[in-house]
């Protein structure tokens, strides 16, 4: 795990499962907030946004949600910028 990285995310990696176990357990080591989606997820637009994000020059920085940098995401900001709700 690095502070900065370029490339695609890993789905279901060790850090994902560790964060999930911490979330359901007593340790709350990660900032977690529920995203309320009233009208459901627009899957087609969300997938399109994810593909655009993968094809972009975005760099990942784990503290981007605190110290916002242009063209930089972390898992929080990346999700907020890719999911699309039905209209």
Question: How would you explain this protein's 3D organization?
Answer:
- The structure is a single chain.
- This protein has 87 residues and is of the alpha+beta class.
- Helix content is 37%, strand content 9%.
- The protein is built from three helices and three strands; from the N terminus they run βααββα.
- It has a three-stranded mixed β-sheet.
- The longest helix has 13 residues.
- The radius of gyration is 14 Å and the shape is globular.
- The termini are far apart.
- The model has no long low-confidence stretch (mean pLDDT 77).
Summarize the structure.
This protein has 87 residues and is α+β, with helices and mostly antiparallel strands. The protein has helices spanning 14-24, 43-55, 75-82; strands at 4-6, 59-61, 72-73.
Task: Tell me the layout of helices and strands.
Layout: E1 4-6, H1 14-24, H2 43-55, E2 59-61, E3 72-73, H3 75-82
